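Table S4 entry, Phosphoserine phosphatase RsbU N-terminal domain-containing protein.
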Amino acid sequence: MAEIDDLTLDYRAAFQRYLPQRSEAALTLGYQLGRQAIAHDVSLLDLVDVHHLVLTEILEDTAEADARDVTAAAAEFLREVLSTFDMAHRSLPCAPQNAAQRPGGG
């Protein structure tokens, strides 16, 4: 659980750094978080939970007029974080596409 707590702290700091200017350098922190998550066997679901928690906290302190902009930035940041999971997934051998080829398939 401490690993998720550490990830939450790092995610919050990285997203808050990204939010004001949306710089490529700050977005790179998101990519690095994704790499660290994979290296530490953090599940995709846990990572999405961390994102949701951090976004919820930030939206609580965000003016209603800015909420849409913050949410869009959060989506961009999450996409960058998850890009490493996407690359890892794509590097796996292709799974059978046909249900009949799967164990127990028709």
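The two ends are 41 Å apart (CA to CA).
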